[in-house]
Amino acid sequence: MSTDPSVAEREWLTLVERKTVLAVVHTLAYGKRLIDVLSLLEADFRVQVLFTAPPHVFGDEVPTFLRGLGGAVLPWDEAVRMTFDLALAAGPRGMESIAAPLITLPHGACYLKRLDTAQHPGVAGLRRQDLVPGGRLPAAVAVPHHAELSVLERSCPEVLPFAHVVGDPAYDRISASLPLRAAYRRALNVTDERQLVVVASTWGRHSSFGRFEALLPRLIAELPVRRFCPVILVHPNVWSGHGSWQVRTWLARCARLGITVVPPEADWRTVLIAADRIIGDHGSVTLYGTLTEAPILLASAPEREINPDSPAAALAVTAPALSPTYSLAAQLDYAAVEYRREEYAGIAERITSEPGRFNRNMRRLMYRLLGLGQPAHEPEIVPLPEPPALDTWTGGRREVVA
Description:
This protein is an alpha/beta fold.
């Protein structure tokens, strides 16, 4: 780490001469992905992890997130004046300013979104400006599936020598946690008599959240509370983009009527595993739903915004589409009748070509770049902890409805 006098107070007075790893947290979604990666450095006294948050349009929730972690946080203008042994980022913005070997990785499932902008068209995460920020080649580009290598060869061939197929941490954590589904449902306080319906939305004008004005009244009016337990999962970028107060205000009536709104900082994966039905769109959460046995009903699947080579495109032509003219409960039942586990399993297999091996692959890559030998134990895939009860997220304030 730099010994610049301006940052001398950041020197570690107890454990010195550690290898330093900088986690660059642009947004809450990026930060939650990096936490899974940083767990691979756990219990290694040779490594000091630091955090920083560059300016980002969706970065409002990041300071609270980092305070909750209790990590050592460097102001961005300080971080760009320092030198680190390794940097990790799930987004490209500002990374050309960080003095460290850089590993970039996706912040969600695969590369799902196609950006149809005149200036920078292409698939988000696989465009040249995403892969070579500011013209600087990273030390490594971590991708989840071998299929991405051919895309890189076409879109940005100079990064191909630095590409590593490591897998997907969320895929592995969800897979390892599936046997705990009953325990998660008990923790959420969902009884066997009720179906947990997860309503998942990504961000952007074509997301299902853009249709919530029409969907929310149907959740309230058409799903009897004796039979259904709706839960809303909204992408953190929606919360940051519109403001937490505004999103909570928009959804306040639903929360009072028994629809749980999961806060952006919460771990959505246990809720997804506990689901009986999923109403989703073209985002990562819906795609990870193919790992579960919950039938999926698509409220939004815009062709122009979906990477046609991604598993999200396959899901868009497999899962039934939500209709405005038929009963919502009947459509959820139809999705269950038409559900074919083998079809969804085939889509899930396209998320990663290294199932169960992310920790092994990613740890090997990080320690090689750090110039350290790996710890002498197999990296463990730890099942997800039990979630709090649903009422915890609503404050217990609910109106009695028939």
